[in-house]
Design a protein that fits this description.
78% of the residues lie in helices and 0% in strands. Helix 1 packs antiparallel against helix 2.
Amino acid sequence: SEIDRVLADAVNADPSSAPARVARVNYLLATDRAKEALDAALSAQSAIPDDMRVLESLAQAQKANNNFSQAVVTFGKLAALLPRSPGPLIGQAEAYIADKDWIGARGALQKAVALNPNDASNQLFLINTIAGSGQPDAARAAARALQKAQPKSAMGYIAEAGVFSSQGQSAEAENVLRSAMKTVDEPVLAIQLVGLLLRDKRTKDAEAVVSQWTEKHPKDQTVRLAVAEASLSAKNFELSSRMYRSLLRGAPDDPVFMNNLAWALGQTGDPEALSLAVKAAAKAPSNPAILETLGQLQLSAGESAKAIQTLTKATELAPANAVLRLSLARAHAKLGQKNEARAQIEIIRNLIAPATVRQDADALLKTL
């Protein structure tokens, strides 16, 4: 409420200030108040009709309100003001896609690519859009054209593999990536191949790719780290544990690797988890995320008083982090400390927090 008041005062103090108006729109969007954000953006456009920053914020507010056709028009106005920038065209393409207008998206992306033909990421977006519009043959042709134009870039091969994968042709996608890895020495190809193999439940084959890459590039941690993080997010804790152990062998004092290994092991009930978390916290005592892991594992191990102390310290280090406060609230709730849990939930309600965190906090409140 205090931030709301200050931003409103800023707009009232100088209604022609684009930074003040845009800051207010962005804040309202960040706090999941899409309708208020749109009203603020429309008011900003009325006051400053041709300001590029205002138009950008209006387009984003229109998208947040599912007003995709209006967002397309607004991005079009922005593109006219910035005729050499592909950014507004990319935004317009995203709005077209959200509105299921594949032809419009394709047209916008073709213009963006023409402005900067060397930007492979925009070309990849275009190819994926062509595939999404139900034209896989045309998408593959565009991917191969990109390969020919940029033979040392991984993007064209990733695009072709992506088209095959979207059609359920995993074997063909795998062949493209393995073939590309023979001539293009980029870790992203290995990461894409590992991801494909894991989606097909071929864990051993995926680990073999990681091992081959590591043997060829012993100092490069990119592939192992990507696989470790992805498998941790996917709750494949056994694979994640093996990857983080491998990373720790190359960097035995890295507290983040220790912390993430501790978390993965903790999810499988491995008793080593808590001791690793203690070591990680000793090396990074001011890292709130590492302290959160330690607190959670202490709670699981029955060390309730230590857990509350650790999680409290984490929130003191990052008082505006709603995720940490939710962890502390859950710890209080688990110990029957309902008033303390409610206090943390009340703080969360006054923070900028993801919608999922707010929903989880509300669900926890109902159990108290």
